[in-house]
Amino acid sequence: MTEKGKMEPDKTADVIRELTEDENFKSEFGKGCTYCLGLFLQHTAMHNEMRKTLPKQYAGLWFNGASDHVYDMQIPDHFPEWLKARLMAFKTLCLEYGHGKGLMEEISHEAVDHAIREALDILRDIDAFMLEVPTKQGDVE
Question: How many independent structural domains does the chain possess?
Fold first, then answer.
């Protein structure tokens, strides 16, 4: 380790290689916390375009694809209980809509909008409360 807890570049590659070769670390749709939220949010543009032309049944299909990224979402033990509960509620809702009733019942586009907003707000809370980085919602997101 170098100063301020940073790894030396050659050591970083070794650690990454060791982790990714570990059978328990592999994941088809991503593993992590903020990384999985980011992958989930990558589906936002598709929703914004498709909602203009597709019926409400599309929202369930959208959740089916986007929620794959929260299967292996990790909730850090050191997060405060309120944030862990919020992440778990988000994960549960997305998986229920994407792999539970969302495949059989009509899910509204508003439910998709709510999930996208929740993911963005959770990321802002992680910045503000865990990383102590000042954050403000942008006019354009």
Answer: 1
